[in-house]
Write a structure and sequence with these properties.
Oligomer: single chain
Helix content: over 70%
Number of helices: 7
Structural class: mainly alpha
Distance between the termini: 80 Å
Strand content: under 5%
Largest sheet: none
Radius of gyration: 25 Å
Length: 170
């Protein structure tokens, strides 16, 4: 009888300790990329106090636009593996030469050499993505109160002002 109690106590202790031990281990599974719609909505409403109804409405907007934006993003991937490799090598060489920002992007773009069909496909995909992002922004703004919209505008103006000051300082 005593042995059974000890065994039972050990089993219970292991069951209680297992979640703690499992939580301590880092998972090797990579997290899935965040939904682009969710990222855009979260960035827009950052710092705003939302009601539960607004949160539910925004969750529905995220759910509606998430797959659409993901599909549009996939359409922008028009480069062949060889073009991607050439672009990456050119970017690496430009960085090694001390170039930054736009100069690196221009060097990579020049090395890729898209075909006319790829350029057309890319332009179409970007246009579609821009339309989706504008529609998403309109839906988010429709959920917000006038006070929240005004607060959002102030934050955007302050950000634009800070960005302008950074550019002037360079």
């Amino acid at each position: 009888m005593r042995t059974a109690r000890i065994a039972l106590a050990l089993v219970v202790a292991l069951l209680l300790a297992y979640p703690v031990l499992a939580a301590g281990k880092k998972s090797d599974v990579k997290k899935a990329a965040a939904c682009p719609a969710a990222q855009q909505v979260d960035k827009m409403v950052k710092g705003l106090t939302l009601t539960d109804a607004q949160k539910a409405s925004l969750a529905a907007v995220k759910k509606e636009y998430g797959p659409k934006l993901t599909a549009a993003i996939k359409k922008t991937d028009v480069q062949t593996p060889a073009q991607k490799k050439a672009g990456a090598e050119a970017a690496k060489a430009a960085k090694a030469a001390g170039k930054t920002g736009k100069d690196v992007a221009q060097a990579a773009a020049a090395a890729v050499k898209l075909t006319d069909a790829q350029k057309t496909q890319l332009a179409s995909a970007k246009k579609e993505m821009g339309t989706l992002q504008k529609d998403l922004s309109k839906k988010v703004m429709a959920v917000l109160t006038p006070e929240q919209k005004q607060e959002l505008k102030k934050c955007q103006d302050a950000k634009n002002c800070q960005d302008a000051k950074k550019k002037c300082a360079k």
